[in-house]
Design brief:
Elements (H helix, E strand, L loop, with lengths): L2 E12 L2 E13 L4 E6 L5 H8 L7 E6 L2 E2 L5 H11 E4 L11 H12 L4 H13 L15 H13 L5 E5 L7 H18 L2 E5 L3 H4 L4 E6 L2 E4 L1 H5 L1
Parallel strand pairs: 3-8, 3-9, 6-7, 7-8
Antiparallel strand pairs: 1-2, 1-4, 4-5, 9-10
Helix pairs in contact: 3-4, 3-5, 4-5, 5-6
This protein binds adenosine-5'-triphosphate.
The site of adenosine-5'-triphosphate (ATP) has 11 residues, from strand 1 and helix 1.
C-alpha cells in the first residue's frame, strides 16, 4: 500500500505571526519504495513525519494511506489506521526500562489485543532479522545505543505496516553504526513492501533511498545529490 500526501499545509505560531512550515506539499510513496527527506534544522521534517504518521492533522490537505483518507476519519478511526498500517522509528526509541527486547516488540501485538503464539514468534523473528537473537531477554540498560535502535526498528515492523516512517533514526549513533541501521531499515522496509520515508541529515544515508527530496521553504526540491547522479 502507498501513502499519499495531497496539498498538505501546516502553519505554526511564530510570535504574533504564523510561519508556514509545509506549504501545499504533495508526496506519493509507492509500496516498497524508500524516499529520503533532507532539510535544514527547523525546516519542518519532523512535522512532515508527524502529519504522515497521523500524529498531527494538517491545517489543510489530505493524507491517504492505502486508499483511506485519514482526514475523513474520526479520531478513533485515525488511531486505528495508524496502529494497523503505520510503523514509526523515532530518533530515540524510548524503550520501556522494565521490559526485555522481546517484550518491547510484543507490546505492539498486546495493544492490538492479539498477542498469541504467532505474534510471539513474529517478535522473535523480527529481533533475529535485526541481529538481536542473542539479546531477546536484555533490558534497555543492558543494550547499546545501536541495539536499542534495532529494537525500535523491530517494534516499528511488528504490525506489518504498509507505511514506515523514520525521523532521524540514527541521530544518536556514530556514522558507521548509523549507516548499518539505515541499511537495515531500508532493507527490511523493502522486503516488507512498505512505503518508507526516512528523514536524515546525512547525504550518505539519503543516497541509500530510491528517491531523495530536500525540504526548503515549505516545499520539496529534488535533492542536489540526486541531480548529480
Ligand atoms: N506546534 C508548534 N508550535 C510552534 N512552533 C512549532 C510547532 N511545531 C513545530 N514548530 C516549529 O517549527 C519548526 C520546524 O520544526 P520541525 O521539528 O518540524 O523541524 P525539523 O526540520 O524536524 O528540525 P530538526 O532537524 O532540528 O529536528 C521549528 O522551528 C519548530 O520550533
Amino acid at each position: 500500500m502507498s501513502i499519499r500526501l495531497e496539498n498538505v499545509t501546516v502553519a505554526v505560531p511564530d510570535g504574533a505571526d504564523r510561519r508556514v512550515l509545509l506549504d501545499g506539499i504533495d508526496l506519493e510513496v509507492a509500496p516498497g519504495e524508500t524516499v529520503a527527506v533532507t532539510g535544514a534544522s527547523g525546516s519542518g521534517k519532523s512535522t512532515l513525519v508527524a502529519v504522515a504518521g497521523l500524529l498531527r492533522a494538517p491545517d489543510a490537505g489530505r493524507v491517504v494511506i492505502g486508499g483511506v483518507d485519514a482526514s475523513a476519519l474520526k479520531d478513533r478511526g485515525r488511531v486505528r489506521l495508524r496502529r494497523d498500517r503505520v510503523g514509526i522509528v523515532y530518533q530515540s526509541p524510548n524503550l520501556l526500562p522494565a521490559l526485555t527486547a522481546r517484550e518491547q516488540v510484543e507490546i505492539v501485538a498486546h495493544i492490538r489485543g492479539d498477542l498469541g503464539r504467532a505474534a510471539r514468534e513474529r517478535a522473535v523473528e523480527l529481533l533475529t532479522r535485526v541481529g538481536l537473537e542473542d539479546r531477546l531477554d536484555a533490558r534497555p540498560a543492558e543494550l547499546s545505543g545501536g541495539e536499542r535502535q534495532r529494537v525500535g526498528i523491530a517494534r516499528a515492523l511488528m504490525n506489518e505496516p504498509s507505511v514506515v516512517l523514520a525521523d532521524e533514526p540514527t541521530a544518536s549513533l556514530d556514522p558507521e553504526r548509523g549507516q548499518a541501521i539505515i541499511d537495515l531499515l531500508v532493507g527490511e522496509a523493502r522486503r516488507a513492501g512498505a512505503a518508507t520515508v526516512v528523514v536524515t541529515h546525512d547525504p550518505e544515508q539519503a543516497a541509500r533511498a530510491d528517491r531523495r527530496l530536500h525540504l526548503r521553504g515549505g516545499v520539496f526540491h529534488a535533492d542536489h545529490a540526486q541531480s548529480r547522479t
